[in-house]
Amino acid sequence: MLLYFYRCKFLNHLRLFLKITLLVSFFISPAAYVTAQLVISGTVYDSTKRNYVEDVIVQSTGGSITTTDSMGRYKITVTEKDSLSFIYQDKPTLKFVVKDIPDPSRFNISLHVKVKSKYGTLQEVIVYSKTYRQDSIENRQIYGDVFNFRNPTVRSSINPDGAVGADVNELINIFRFKRNKRIKAFQARLEAQEQEQFINYRFNKKFVGRITQLAGAELDTFMVRYRPNYEFASMADEISFNRYVLNASYAYKIELLKQEAKK
What we know:
Mean pLDDT: 77
CATH architecture of the domain at 38-123: Sandwich
Order of helices and strands: HEEEEEEEEHHEEHHHHHH
Strand content: 15-25%
């Protein structure tokens, strides 16, 4: 009888323990599940990287699924253990491991298809401000005498009484050799500064970084190594200048890969 009593008491304690364990796991497990979830969002483009692709199926290995809207945008909730695939016209992409995605809020991809979309991104348009031109004009106004300086020579002048004679000031300046040499040197320095400022204005970091996708020390090195001369910067049209920067970036990246391979 006593054994039966202890046995019943043990079973009651065991039932209570199981109830508490189930209750705790009920509240803890969902919280752990929620914290493991994250949202991946981005935009799907076609091969031109300008047109949005609509109705692309975005599917995770965990079972979540969504489609892109008319602007190619999507948003899907996944876990770190999932992988994503994009399906367009029954053709899936390779799977992207969620934990390897660097920026979950901007996971944009480009499909190997071309579509005609009513929406699209414009090709990059570079707009040059008037700041440089205004500064150049103002600088030439301030140093007009220097920019307009020419070697003195014999010139005629008209006196107030109407008589024509040699320009005395020009005659004097012909023999002011140090003064003429100093002005010529100053003129050359001003023109060189103006040319360097124009190159800086057109070949600037923001513009170059946007085309080459370089940043940090690599961009700094590229800016020095592939800096164009004034003749090209002033004569090249926008398309030619952009092509030069892009082709130079290809050559530079190949060089970086070769250096990396030697290590």
